[in-house]
Amino acid sequence: AACSSGEEVYSIAMVLADCLGSDTPWEVMGSDISTRVLRGAQRAHYSAERARNIPASYLKRFCLRGTQEYQGTLLIDHALRSRVHFRQLNLNAALPDIGQFDVIFLRNVMIYFDKATQNKILERMVHLLRPDGLFFAGHSESFVQATHLVKLIERTVYRPALRGR
Hints:
Blueprint: H1 7-20, E1 28-32, H2 35-43, E2 45-47, H3 56-62, E3 63-65, E4 73-76, H4 78-81, E5 84-88, E6 101-106, H5 115-126, E7 129-137, E8 150-154, E9 157-160
Parallel strand pairs: 1-5, 6-7
Antiparallel strand pairs: 2-4, 3-4, 7-9, 8-9
């Protein structure tokens, strides 16, 4: 959630493709409130400088290097892009029926909301997680006020506290 221009979404997809392969069914959904940034994310075309922290083996395997007028850019390859989808979502509104998730990444966005709003967002998001799902937050985010919703299992990693939803 709150994926902005999509780099992290594609990075997550690269790890899944590497670990699970192409025969295992999986997909990644990125969301943001801004349709403008989502259009850019769907294009999957980035400055090579933005990919400097991606392992070289992933760049070689999952990206096409730009040439001529596209020198210094990269495009996420079609096979990986086909497993990634983007949706416009407002975290402060009721969420549409978008299914259940094994993992939700909501990193470095909750710091912009007060605790009451964080709780409302967490409640919406936790109900999208499967009972054994994981919720990842940013390093500067803490949900000690929301132990009725999420249980800290490791630094920045939570599980739903609610059972039998």
